[in-house]
Amino acid sequence: MRAIALSGQTASALPRQRFSLGYVLIAPLVLWLLLTVIIPLIGAVGLSLQDMRIVGTASNYIGLANYGRVLSDGAFWAAAGRSVLWVVGNAVLQTALGFLVAILLNQRLRLARAARMWILLSWVLPTAVLVIIWRWMLSSAGGGLINALLIEARLIRLPISFFGSAESAMITLIVINSWRWFPLTALFILAGLQAIPDELYEAAKVDGASAVQRFRHITLPSLQPVLASLGLIGFLWSVNVFDVIWLLTQGGPSDGTTTLPVFIYNAAFKQYRLSEAAAASVIFGILLLACAALFLRLVGSPERER
Questions:
Q1: Is residue 2 part of a domain?
Q2: What is the secondary structure of 237-281 as a DSSP string?
Q3: What is the model's pTM?
Q4: Domain count, the chain
Q5: DSSP per-residue codes, 130-198
Q6: Would you say residue 273 lies in a domain?
Q7: Residue 24: other Cβ atoms inside 10 A
Q8: Which tens digit of pLDDT belongs to each residue from 271-299?
Q9: Which end of the chain has the smaller Cβ count within 10 Å, N or C?
Q10: CATH number of the domain that 185 lies in?
Q11: Residue 117 belongs to what domain range?
């Protein structure tokens, strides 16, 4: 009886030991999130309730006054509108390019494996290198590769100033950012395509389904979890892009490429309105959470779809 009792105690202790081990294993990640996300977020909320203009200067508590200034600032809402345009443009172009490349790589071609590796080159390039390459290629002065090719092909007579107007600058930035990120989208879609059983396509062919019908009724429904995940992650990544925009245009010309991250940076470090920038960042975070919740409600959770 004593042996049975001891064995029962040992068996009941095992789940608790495993439970404690789980806490120990996730503790470093929780600590990292606490130091890099939670504490800075609390600090930003506290800063937004003060009147600090420059880092390190004295400040007073002013409540929600900064939120009122930001919400009544037309420049903030103009930047929000540009952020929406930026996200939609990137989503459409990256998804289209990713689908096209993924379908090509999914074919049983000899160079497909090598192409899967080389396609990630644009994604792993440092931002500074990417900016230098695209500035040289898009230069409207002598030496710009794109303008030289267009003139040589007699498609244009004079060099194009790709960053000369707000509209052309935004379109150019969307193309550059999509060129950088579409390989990752393509690999996600490719993984989803390879997970679709070939028997489904073969049965559809036997039933007389065309290529368009097979794509509509087999490929798209099967890729819905992948596309839902890409949609949410791509939205959060795209809307927070700062480095490419700042290094190429700094939000110009005439604030034509000033998205919300650039607006917050300008307010904090160029206009010396640190507390207002903190309030804008808090509002920006709330808007992102609301958009993510709305996306999950409309599209559905990727985990639930699986």
A1: no
A2: HHHT--HHHHHHTTT-STTTT--HHHHHHHHHHTS--HHHHHHHH
A3: 0.85
A4: 1
A5: HHHHHHHHH-SSTT-HHHHHHHHTTS-SS---TTSSHHHHHHHHHHHHHHHHHHHHHHHHHHHHHTS-H
A6: yes
A7: 8
A8: 999 999 999 999 999 999 999 899 888 87
A9: N
A10: 1.10.3720.10
A11: 74-127+163-305
